[in-house]
Amino acid sequence: MAFVHLHTHSEYSLLDGANRIPELVAHVKKLGMDSLAVTDHGNLHAAWSFYEQAKAHKLRPILGFEAYLAYGPRQAREKPSWAPAAYSHLVLLAKNRAGYRNLVRLTSIGYTEGFYRRPRIDKATLERHSEGIICLAACLSGEVAHHLRQGKFEEARQSAEWFARLFGRDGFWLEVQQHGIAEERIVTEGMLRLRQ
């Protein structure tokens, strides 16, 4: 069975990633994979060097980033009272040139209009710049996962349905991870229920 890492951080995900692009690409090639995504937190800083290295190793580079999605307007500094957190994570991948252009717009908006501790975007911005993008529900800090961790299955379902409507039938994917963290079991069980 083919396998591709679609949620990978490099040294440009400060305090969360340590992969240096040349070594990462070489290791993925050594493992026999033919593609790789680099999805740093809030930025596309690694995109150029990653693209060049991947092409040199005959790997298909998948460009993306892990967005910080504000629960309210991206300019707001306070967490809305109804929100489970100040922001959530969302993995965004370019599936074509339009998608890459939209990723550049989204990360730029995050830094220029939504920056408060993190370069945040909001759902209104995401709606305007969703063309050509594939979306993954992200980690334990994703919106769907936030709701599942709090035992709010209906809210998780509504959230997943919103993303599925925005990105289309094959454009939104639930994400499960297994790093030995107890809450991942809760989220995985919820994600498996949601897929039905």
What does this molecule look like?
The structure is a single chain. Helix content is 39%, strand content 19%. Strands 1, 2, 3, 4, 5, 6 and 7 form a seven-stranded mixed beta sheet that branches. The protein has helices at 21-30, 47-56, 97-112, 123-128, 143-149, 153-167, 182-194; strands at residues 35-41, 60-70, 87-94, 115-116, 118-121, 133-136, 172-173. The protein has seven helices and seven strands, in the order αβαββαββαβααβα. The protein is globular. The model has no long low-confidence stretch (mean pLDDT 96). It has a domain at 63-194: TIM Barrel. β1, α2 and β2 form a beta-alpha-beta unit. With 196 residues, it is of the alpha/beta class. α5 (143-149) packs across α7.
Brief characterization of the structure:
The chain has 196 residues and is an alpha/beta fold. It contains seven helices and seven strands, in the order H-E-H-E-E-H-E-E-H-E-H-H-E-H.
